[in-house]
């Protein structure tokens, strides 16, 4: 008997082109999306958004990001939740932007793995410890128009400033030492916190003196007004005609004589 051949199902192609296409498609579907105007290198977990014309922190930055480049854009501020999901971030570059404000706790959400924070070449004038949180990253803050005061002094003392750039933190405005390096001023013994307390004490004394003077003026004015009212009242009483005697009183006086 002749055997009847059983038809076989065609097997999947095993060519290298098909395998590579399958791997690429799988990797594309499993990889996180890259933000618009940015380039992502998944092998190094680097997101490159430099020179992208950005005016704010882009949304959708992958949570696995280790290095984030945002240099040379037009970013003006950093909202509080900008980096809240980037727990693996180690390097954050924000230099050469127009950042002039940080939301309260804007950098507080950066994880303990952060090693470098670059905020140089921006428009920052004031900052405090609450905005930076407890980061121990090496920090660059030079080339900003800083206003040197007690809050900035306390921030400098709490940050791990990059030694090579620390002298570039210049006081553009201040009660003392305008145009000089903040670190050099602090090293020379200048204490902005004590200056602020002295200024506050003087302002309080001036305020108390003005308040006391106003009270004295009011009391003197009140007393003089009362005296004037009393004099007018006496003059009015004197101007009244004296009361005449009644007939009964006249008869009684005549009978007595």
Explain this structure.
This protein is an alpha/beta fold and 257 residues long. The protein has two domains: 39-190, Alpha-Beta Horseshoe (Leucine-rich repeat, LRR (right-handed beta-alpha superhelix)); 192-228. The protein is built from six helices and eleven strands. The protein has helices at residues 16-30, 129-132, 150-158, 182-187, 192-239, 247-256, and strands at 39-41, 46-48, 67-69, 77-78, 91-93, 101-102, 116-118, 138-140, 146-148, 160-161, 171-174. Strands 1-2-3-5-7-8-10 form a seven-stranded mixed β-sheet, with helices on one face. Strands 4-6 form a two-stranded parallel ribbon. A two-stranded parallel sheet has the order 9-11. α3 packs antiparallel against α5 (192-239). The chain is elongated and about 120 Å long. The model is unreliable at 1-14, 17-30 and 198-203 (pLDDT under 50). InterPro entries: Leu-rich_rpt (IPR001611), Leu-rich_rpt_typical-subtyp (IPR003591), LRR_dom_sf (IPR032675), LRR_TM_domain-containing (IPR050541), LRRNT (IPR000372).
């Amino acid at each position: 008997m002749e055997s009847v051949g059983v038809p076989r199902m065609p097997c999947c192609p095993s060519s290298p082109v098909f395998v590579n296409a399958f791997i690429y498609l799988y990797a594309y579907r499993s990889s996180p999306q890259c933000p618009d105007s940015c380039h992502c290198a998944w092998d190094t977990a680097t997101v490159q958004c430099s020179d992208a014309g950005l005016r704010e922190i882009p949304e959708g930055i992958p949570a696995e990001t280790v290095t984030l480049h945002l240099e040379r854009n037009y970013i003006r501020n950093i909202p509080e939740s900008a980096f809240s999901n980037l727990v693996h971030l180690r390097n954050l570059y924000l230099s050469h932007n127009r950042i002039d404000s940080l939301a309260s706790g804007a950098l507080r959400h950066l994880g303990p793995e952060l090693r470098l924070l670059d905020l140089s070449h921006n428009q920052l004038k004031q900052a405090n410890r609450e905005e930076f949180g407890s980061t121990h990253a090496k920090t660059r803050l030079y080339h900003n128009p800083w206003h040197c005061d007690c809050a900035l002094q306390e921030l400098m003392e709490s940050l791990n400033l990059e030694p090579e750039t620390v002298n570039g933190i210049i006081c553009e405005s201040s009660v003392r030492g305008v145009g000089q390096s903040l670190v050099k001023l602090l090293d020379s013994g200048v204490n902005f916190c004590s200056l602020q307390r002295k200024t506050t004490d003087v302002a309080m004394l001036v305020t108390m003196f003005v308040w006391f003077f106003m009270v004295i003026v009011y009391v003197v004015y009140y007393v003089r007004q009362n005296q004037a009212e009393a004099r007018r009242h006496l003059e009015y009483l004197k101007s009244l005609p004296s009361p005449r005697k009644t007939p009964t009183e006249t008869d009684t006086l005549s009978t007595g004589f």
